[in-house]
């Protein structure tokens, strides 16, 4: 039967004796620490070690040199594709650190298909969890292991989804925008959006505001929270203009902003009310709610009137952290 055929792949190689593209090196460590905001002194200076959580970074082949899996791994995924489990989502990753990595270390790695689960039904659809374990070495020494799990699944058709209801299209048959993923942790946020209220989560232990919504406070670990309603004032903290690829339901080019709210938290949303090429860092924006179809309300950010004429907030352009 099908599951027996899948089980055959447990223990087979997914990658053999690969070599890291670059030795462990100080520039990559520095960029990582800057991006993560990690100022731990162990990661700089003459005796620096690499942050242990960079483990996978040293194995990555980059955009140019993507290497395929082994025959066994491709065959397993192909088998699942052919059986209708065509979608894939990474679900979790687990690392173990056995030896610090230092600039100059050259790594090699092997990967093995550790397990293929029994058939599981999830909110995304029914499928199989495939777990691979990568062993990363420096010479003969095991430096760490990186266990990575994906779900290969057959996506539910929209009409089968419990919450979404039938797909609705406007008269031009334009595809509808993707729905937000609503779960127990963020349900109250999306209920607020439906009522045209933007709610920010607040830790009742230490008062820290947070967004996106999370079950716990990153500042104090507290699990209790309430909400404050956003005033709706914000500025563009960063942005991208999407040209390509074109997604159904979207008309490129359009600007997607990382908006810093007056309350201090940041969130992502479309920047409207100004041509896409007039969006600038520091641009003042104001919250509005847009009803995209009968079901979908989203917060969007409108350039405040006249903002485009204010030299696109020139003074604000470069004064950001
Ligand atoms: Zn807190």
TrEMBL record:
Residues 19-134 form the FAS1-like dehydratase domain. Residues 160-172 have a biased composition (Basic and acidic residues). Residues 228-290 form the ChsH2 C-terminal OB-fold domain. Residues 190-225 form the ChsH2 rubredoxin-like zinc ribbon domain. Pfam families: FAS1_DH_region, OB_ChsH2_C, zf-ChsH2. Residues 160-183 are annotated as: Disordered. InterPro entries: ChsH2_C (IPR002878), ChsH2_Znr (IPR022002), FAS1-like_DH_region (IPR039569), HotDog_dom_sf (IPR029069), NA-bd_OB-fold (IPR012340), Thioester_dehydratase-like (IPR052513). Signal peptide: none annotated. This is OB-fold domain-containing protein.
